[in-house]
Design goal:
Elements lengths: L1 H14 L3 E5 L7 H4 L5 E6 L2 H11 L3 E5 L12 E7 L8 H11 E12 L9 H4 L21 H10 L2 E9 L11 H9 L23 H15 L6 E8 L9
Parallel strand pairs: 1-2, 1-4, 2-3, 4-5
Antiparallel strand pairs: 5-7, 6-7
Protein backbone atom coordinates (compact mmCIF):
# COMPACT_ATOMS: atom_id res chain seq x y z
CA UNK A 1 0.00 0.00 0.00
CA UNK A 2 2.82 2.41 0.83
CA UNK A 3 4.38 1.96 -2.62
CA UNK A 4 1.02 2.40 -4.34
CA UNK A 5 0.30 5.60 -2.44
CA UNK A 6 3.76 6.93 -3.22
CA UNK A 7 3.29 6.37 -6.93
CA UNK A 8 -0.14 8.05 -6.94
CA UNK A 9 1.02 11.09 -4.98
CA UNK A 10 4.09 11.57 -7.19
CA UNK A 11 2.04 11.30 -10.38
CA UNK A 12 -0.58 13.73 -9.08
CA UNK A 13 2.08 16.21 -7.98
CA UNK A 14 3.62 16.14 -11.46
CA UNK A 15 0.24 16.88 -13.04
CA UNK A 16 -0.49 19.72 -10.57
CA UNK A 17 -4.30 19.48 -10.96
CA UNK A 18 -6.81 22.11 -9.99
CA UNK A 19 -9.69 19.63 -10.07
CA UNK A 20 -9.17 16.00 -9.04
CA UNK A 21 -11.42 12.95 -8.70
CA UNK A 22 -10.66 9.70 -6.91
CA UNK A 23 -12.79 6.80 -8.16
CA UNK A 24 -12.98 3.96 -5.67
CA UNK A 25 -11.77 5.98 -2.70
CA UNK A 26 -12.51 3.19 -0.22
CA UNK A 27 -12.03 4.40 3.34
CA UNK A 28 -10.21 7.57 2.28
CA UNK A 29 -6.62 6.33 2.61
CA UNK A 30 -5.37 8.87 0.06
CA UNK A 31 -7.80 11.73 0.44
CA UNK A 32 -6.08 13.83 3.09
CA UNK A 33 -2.85 13.81 1.03
CA UNK A 34 -4.73 14.63 -2.19
CA UNK A 35 -6.80 17.49 -0.74
CA UNK A 36 -4.25 20.30 -0.93
CA UNK A 37 -5.33 23.94 -0.39
CA UNK A 38 -6.78 25.45 -3.54
CA UNK A 39 -7.53 22.06 -5.12
CA UNK A 40 -11.10 20.85 -5.71
CA UNK A 41 -11.25 17.18 -4.76
CA UNK A 42 -14.17 14.80 -5.27
CA UNK A 43 -14.28 11.11 -4.42
CA UNK A 44 -16.67 8.21 -4.88
CA UNK A 45 -17.15 4.53 -4.09
CA UNK A 46 -19.89 1.92 -4.34
CA UNK A 47 -19.67 1.11 -0.61
CA UNK A 48 -21.80 3.53 1.43
CA UNK A 49 -20.06 2.70 4.73
CA UNK A 50 -16.66 3.32 3.15
CA UNK A 51 -17.79 6.65 1.71
CA UNK A 52 -19.13 7.78 5.09
CA UNK A 53 -15.84 6.84 6.75
CA UNK A 54 -13.81 8.53 3.98
CA UNK A 55 -15.80 11.73 4.45
CA UNK A 56 -15.04 11.72 8.18
CA UNK A 57 -11.34 11.14 7.51
CA UNK A 58 -11.05 13.73 4.72
CA UNK A 59 -13.25 16.40 6.24
CA UNK A 60 -15.21 19.08 4.44
CA UNK A 61 -12.39 19.79 1.96
CA UNK A 62 -13.45 16.72 -0.06
CA UNK A 63 -16.86 15.95 -1.58
CA UNK A 64 -17.44 12.18 -1.15
CA UNK A 65 -20.42 10.53 -2.84
CA UNK A 66 -21.82 7.02 -3.25
CA UNK A 67 -21.93 5.87 -6.88
CA UNK A 68 -23.83 2.57 -7.10
CA UNK A 69 -23.81 2.42 -10.91
CA UNK A 70 -21.10 2.31 -13.56
CA UNK A 71 -21.73 5.86 -14.86
CA UNK A 72 -20.07 8.62 -12.87
CA UNK A 73 -22.27 11.62 -11.91
CA UNK A 74 -19.93 14.30 -13.34
CA UNK A 75 -19.95 16.01 -16.70
CA UNK A 76 -17.49 15.30 -19.51
CA UNK A 77 -14.00 16.69 -19.03
CA UNK A 78 -14.54 18.09 -15.55
CA UNK A 79 -11.27 16.92 -13.94
CA UNK A 80 -7.60 17.54 -14.60
CA UNK A 81 -6.62 14.26 -12.92
CA UNK A 82 -8.62 11.12 -12.15
CA UNK A 83 -7.13 8.65 -9.65
CA UNK A 84 -8.22 5.02 -9.62
CA UNK A 85 -6.06 3.01 -7.20
CA UNK A 86 -6.42 -0.78 -7.10
CA UNK A 87 -10.03 -0.73 -8.26
CA UNK A 88 -9.99 -2.00 -11.84
CA UNK A 89 -9.24 -5.58 -10.79
CA UNK A 90 -12.53 -5.70 -8.85
CA UNK A 91 -14.99 -4.53 -11.54
CA UNK A 92 -16.85 -6.79 -13.94
CA UNK A 93 -16.15 -4.62 -17.01
CA UNK A 94 -12.74 -2.88 -16.80
CA UNK A 95 -13.09 -1.23 -20.22
CA UNK A 96 -16.41 0.34 -19.23
CA UNK A 97 -14.77 1.77 -16.11
CA UNK A 98 -11.85 3.16 -18.12
CA UNK A 99 -14.28 4.75 -20.60
CA UNK A 100 -15.90 6.58 -17.71
CA UNK A 101 -12.53 7.75 -16.42
CA UNK A 102 -11.73 8.91 -19.96
CA UNK A 103 -15.05 10.73 -20.17
CA UNK A 104 -14.64 12.80 -17.02
CA UNK A 105 -10.96 13.74 -17.52
CA UNK A 106 -10.19 16.74 -19.70
CA UNK A 107 -8.38 16.34 -23.01
CA UNK A 108 -5.03 17.50 -21.58
CA UNK A 109 -5.53 15.64 -18.29
CA UNK A 110 -4.30 12.28 -17.01
CA UNK A 111 -5.67 9.17 -15.34
CA UNK A 112 -3.48 7.75 -12.56
CA UNK A 113 -4.16 4.04 -12.22
CA UNK A 114 -2.75 1.24 -10.08
CA UNK A 115 -3.45 -2.49 -10.18
CA UNK A 116 -2.03 -5.80 -8.96
CA UNK A 117 0.20 -7.66 -11.39
CA UNK A 118 -0.25 -11.18 -12.75
CA UNK A 119 3.52 -11.16 -13.42
CA UNK A 120 4.37 -11.06 -9.71
CA UNK A 121 7.77 -12.14 -8.28
CA UNK A 122 7.91 -15.68 -6.88
CA UNK A 123 9.02 -14.29 -3.51
CA UNK A 124 5.56 -12.72 -3.11
CA UNK A 125 3.53 -15.89 -3.70
CA UNK A 126 5.75 -18.97 -4.19
CA UNK A 127 2.78 -21.37 -4.05
CA UNK A 128 0.98 -19.86 -7.03
CA UNK A 129 4.23 -19.01 -8.83
CA UNK A 130 4.97 -22.75 -9.06
CA UNK A 131 1.48 -23.87 -10.10
CA UNK A 132 -0.12 -23.86 -13.54
CA UNK A 133 -3.55 -23.30 -11.96
CA UNK A 134 -3.78 -20.71 -9.18
CA UNK A 135 -5.01 -21.43 -5.68
CA UNK A 136 -7.95 -19.07 -5.21
CA UNK A 137 -7.90 -16.99 -2.05
CA UNK A 138 -4.14 -17.30 -1.55
CA UNK A 139 -1.31 -14.80 -2.10
CA UNK A 140 -1.82 -12.81 -5.29
CA UNK A 141 -5.34 -14.27 -5.56
CA UNK A 142 -6.38 -13.45 -1.97
CA UNK A 143 -8.16 -10.12 -2.36
CA UNK A 144 -11.38 -10.96 -4.14
CA UNK A 145 -10.09 -9.87 -7.55
CA UNK A 146 -12.34 -10.37 -10.57
CA UNK A 147 -9.23 -9.97 -12.76
CA UNK A 148 -5.50 -10.23 -12.23
CA UNK A 149 -4.07 -8.26 -15.20
CA UNK A 150 -0.55 -7.69 -16.43
CA UNK A 151 0.86 -4.56 -18.05
CA UNK A 152 -0.13 -5.65 -21.56
CA UNK A 153 -3.72 -6.23 -20.41
CA UNK A 154 -3.96 -2.76 -18.85
CA UNK A 155 -2.55 -1.22 -22.04
CA UNK A 156 -5.09 -3.10 -24.18
CA UNK A 157 -8.05 -2.17 -21.97
CA UNK A 158 -6.89 1.45 -21.95
CA UNK A 159 -6.54 1.60 -25.73
CA UNK A 160 -10.07 0.25 -26.15
CA UNK A 161 -11.31 3.02 -23.84
CA UNK A 162 -9.46 5.80 -25.68
CA UNK A 163 -6.50 6.10 -23.31
CA UNK A 164 -2.78 5.58 -23.95
CA UNK A 165 -0.07 4.64 -21.46
CA UNK A 166 2.20 7.65 -20.96
CA UNK A 167 4.24 6.00 -18.22
CA UNK A 168 4.22 2.81 -16.18
CA UNK A 169 6.31 1.31 -13.42
CA UNK A 170 6.41 -1.76 -11.22
CA UNK A 171 5.52 -1.35 -7.55
CA UNK A 172 7.32 -3.65 -5.05
CA UNK A 173 9.75 -6.14 -6.57
CA UNK A 174 11.29 -9.42 -5.44
CA UNK A 175 13.43 -7.91 -2.66
CA UNK A 176 10.57 -6.35 -0.66
CA UNK A 177 7.79 -8.72 -1.77
CA UNK A 178 8.30 -11.30 1.02
CA UNK A 179 7.22 -8.67 3.56
CA UNK A 180 3.70 -8.85 2.06
CA UNK A 181 3.59 -12.58 1.34
CA UNK A 182 0.34 -14.22 2.47
CA UNK A 183 -0.25 -12.43 5.78
CA UNK A 184 -1.73 -9.25 4.23
CA UNK A 185 -4.45 -11.10 2.33
CA UNK A 186 -5.31 -13.21 5.36
CA UNK A 187 -5.47 -10.13 7.60
CA UNK A 188 -7.84 -8.36 5.22
CA UNK A 189 -10.12 -11.39 4.98
CA UNK A 190 -10.29 -11.72 8.76
CA UNK A 191 -10.35 -8.16 10.08
CA UNK A 192 -11.07 -5.47 7.48
CA UNK A 193 -14.59 -4.04 7.71
CA UNK A 194 -14.79 -3.61 3.91
CA UNK A 195 -13.24 -6.99 3.08
CA UNK A 196 -16.12 -7.92 0.73
CA UNK A 197 -15.95 -4.62 -1.22
CA UNK A 198 -19.64 -3.90 -0.79
CA UNK A 199 -21.96 -2.09 1.60
CA UNK A 200 -23.03 -3.93 4.72
CA UNK A 201 -19.78 -5.88 4.94
CA UNK A 202 -19.91 -6.01 8.72
CA UNK A 203 -17.74 -4.75 11.52
CA UNK A 204 -14.00 -4.75 11.64
CA UNK A 205 -10.88 -2.61 11.42
CA UNK A 206 -10.99 0.57 9.33
CA UNK A 207 -8.29 2.95 8.11
CA UNK A 208 -7.50 6.02 10.14
CA UNK A 209 -5.19 8.88 9.22
CA UNK A 210 -2.55 8.29 11.89
CA UNK A 211 0.99 7.71 10.66
CA UNK A 212 1.59 3.93 10.61
CA UNK A 213 4.45 2.50 12.70
CA UNK A 214 7.88 1.89 11.17
CA UNK A 215 7.17 4.26 8.26
CA UNK A 216 10.83 5.23 7.84
CA UNK A 217 11.92 1.58 7.79
CA UNK A 218 9.28 0.70 5.19
CA UNK A 219 10.22 3.65 2.98
CA UNK A 220 13.89 2.68 3.14
CA UNK A 221 13.06 -0.91 2.19
CA UNK A 222 10.95 0.26 -0.75
CA UNK A 223 13.68 2.62 -1.97
CA UNK A 224 16.22 -0.23 -1.95
CA UNK A 225 13.71 -2.57 -3.58
CA UNK A 226 13.09 -0.06 -6.40
CA UNK A 227 16.81 0.14 -7.17
CA UNK A 228 17.35 -3.62 -7.07
CA UNK A 229 14.19 -4.61 -8.93
CA UNK A 230 13.95 -2.03 -11.69
CA UNK A 231 12.56 -3.68 -14.82
CA UNK A 232 11.74 -6.95 -13.09
CA UNK A 233 8.49 -8.55 -11.97
CA UNK A 234 6.43 -6.60 -9.45
CA UNK A 235 3.60 -7.13 -7.00
CA UNK A 236 1.73 -4.07 -8.28
CA UNK A 237 1.75 -1.71 -11.25
CA UNK A 238 1.33 2.04 -11.58
CA UNK A 239 0.22 3.80 -14.78
CA UNK A 240 -0.20 7.36 -15.97
CA UNK A 241 -2.71 7.31 -18.83
CA UNK A 242 -3.58 10.13 -21.20
CA UNK A 243 -6.44 10.62 -23.67
CA UNK A 244 -5.56 9.03 -26.99
CA UNK A 245 -8.66 10.00 -28.96
CA UNK A 246 -11.73 12.20 -28.48
CA UNK A 247 -14.09 10.93 -25.82
CA UNK A 248 -17.06 8.90 -27.01
CA UNK A 249 -20.35 10.59 -26.09
CA UNK A 250 -23.18 8.46 -24.81
CA UNK A 251 -26.22 8.26 -27.11
CA UNK A 252 -29.12 10.53 -26.11
Amino acid sequence: MRARHGFVLRAVAEAAPRRLLEVGCGEGDLLRALALPGREVCACDVNAEDVAHAQRVAGSAVACVVVPEARLPWEDGRFDVVVCADVIEHVADPVALLRELRRVVREAGVVVLTAPNRAFPWTYDPVNALRSRPVAGLGAYAYGHTHLPDAATIAAWSAEAGLAVRRSEGLVHAFAAPVEAYWAGAAQALWKANRHNRSGSGRGWRFDDREPPFTGLVDGLLALDARLGRGGRSVGMGFVLEPDRPRAHAPP
